[in-house]
Amino acid sequence: LLGSDNGGTVTPTDKSVTVGKIDINGGELFLDADDDTSITADTDDQIDFKAGGTDIMSLTATTATFNDNVSININDNTDGLTITSTDADATNGPGLRLFRDSASPADSDDIGRIIFSGENDASEQINYGIIRGDLLDVTDGTEDGTIKFEAITAGTNREIARFGNGVGAVF
Fold first, then answer.
1. SS3 call for 70
2. N or C: which end of the chain has fewer CB atoms below 10 A?
3. Distance CA 140, CA 124 (A)
4. Could you tell me if 155 and 165 are in contact, meaning their C-beta atoms sit under 8 angstroms apart?
């Protein structure tokens, strides 16, 4: 290894290090000059990632947990996200869950939405369609919810269908 050993710090002279294995034994691997971007594995079988001193993501053998927004950018028309279940039983799957974990759920709260957006001819991002879930009643044992479908008509988002609250479909 070219460089110097300064009490555990290796400074290569040619800015490259080639090794077969690095064992930091649960320590923290810093990736920038001010030591606020790092990778750690101080919990058995879990890798944690920090950027700017903030916990961003953790990985285990079965779960990736993101602590902030996630963007998936693609440059063609292929699927941007595929959820695959290899389970061979007859129950439903794979599943997608939008979970609103509110400390104070209340009647009429919005609990999730799927937005279909695109650009208009002025290159403005427009929401052309929205599917929304709403809490109507959060009382334990008498919970009610609804699913609403919205679409843009003449430049204005309008509710075009509603399902739930014991009334079936309302158009």
1. coil
2. C
3. 43
4. no
